[in-house]
Write a structure and sequence with these properties.
four-stranded antiparallel sheet, 291 residues, alpha+beta, 9 helices
Length: 291
């Protein structure tokens, strides 16, 4: 009877991997790092609710990939800020830490931007001053709240992920704070200068279209030892991944095509993962699909 109760308790305490948002980290840590070592390393940053290493099902060996789930978003943010680039014994190579992608969000969330409700009498400066007591606020944009006439919705952009996380956790209940969704950027012809407008109406060639519309596809040159699943897991740490395909030509280098559902995620993936060592000792090359 006691054994059944223990099993039930274990089941009910399994954390929700998507709550709170951005509280789960993806870690490239090397194949010699154990679950115990991973948890010990990240415990100083906060309460670790879940920690595991990904193993190859066919060989049983570690893939050098880990996931760490924290109790709070700010704990994950602090770990991301301070742990990235350090090393976990017995590995000597620096680890790579990123936010693990959500499994439920249809649109990626912006870890630097919050959406909050506020009274209509508060202007942007007042909202910035209120949240600036806790975090570094870069900008505030106010728009009328369509669902609650007489109130506003404020979009706050923060200096860092940690600043946004602390503001998210300390916001008053009436603010109903949540991380804002990333929306595809729209081009308005009204904002285009006259000399630029002429180029919009020229015959569009394939080369020019890639300039006007930043691609969401990336080309990845990587080691032929990597599988499509490994490439998928690597790029899936950045929200918005739609598709991944890899081709092997028999040589030492393979080519993969990675597609995101928005240009911001594609740009971020290129900036963060270009020349990243994966596997350890071999760098991948990430380019825009148009290059």
């Amino acid at each position: 009877m006691a054994q059944e109760q223990s099993s039930s308790t274990t089941t009910t305490t399994v954390p929700d991997l998507n709550s709170p948002p951005f509280s789960r980290l993806f870690v490239l840590c090397g194949k010699q790092v154990t679950v115990g070592a991973l948890e010990k390393f990240f415990s100083p940053y906060g309460t670790v609710e879940q920690c595991h290493i990904v193993y190859d099902q066919s060989t049983g060996q570690s893939k050098g990939i880990g996931f760490v789930k924290f109790q709070k978003t700010s704990q994950a943010a602090r770990a991301l800020k301070e742990a990235d680039g350090k090393h976990i014994e017995p590995e000597l190579k620096p680890i790579k830490v990123e936010i693990a992608s959500s499994t439920i969000e249809s649109k990626p969330l912006d870890c630097l931007r919050l959406k909050v409700k506020c009274a209509a009498e508060l202007d942007a400066d007042a909202v910035k001053a209120e949240f600036g007591k806790i975090s570094a606020v870069n900008s505030v944009q106010l728009v009328p709240d369509k669902k609650s006439p007489g109130n506003n919705v404020a979009y706050l952009t923060f200096e860092s992920f940690l600043d946004a996380a602390l503001a998210f956790e300390t916001a008053k209940p009436e603010h109903k704070a949540k991380f804002a969704k990333i929306k595809p950027r729209k081009v308005s012809l009204e904002s285009v200068q006259p000399q630029e407008a002429r180029s919009f109406f020229r015959p569009v060639t394939r080369r020019r279209s890639s300039t006007l519309l930043p691609p969401t596809k990336l080309t990845v040159l990587c080691s032929s030892t990597l599988t499509q699943n490994q490439i998928w897991r690597l790029f899936d740490i950045i929200p918005g991944l739609m598709n991944c395909s890899i081709s092997h030509d028999g040589g030492s280098i393979s080519s993969a095509t990675v597609t995101y559902n928005n240009t911001q995620s594609a740009k971020y993936a290129r900036e963060k993962l270009h020349k990243f060592e994966y596997p350890i000792g071999e760098r991948i090359v990430v380019r825009d699909g148009s290059e």
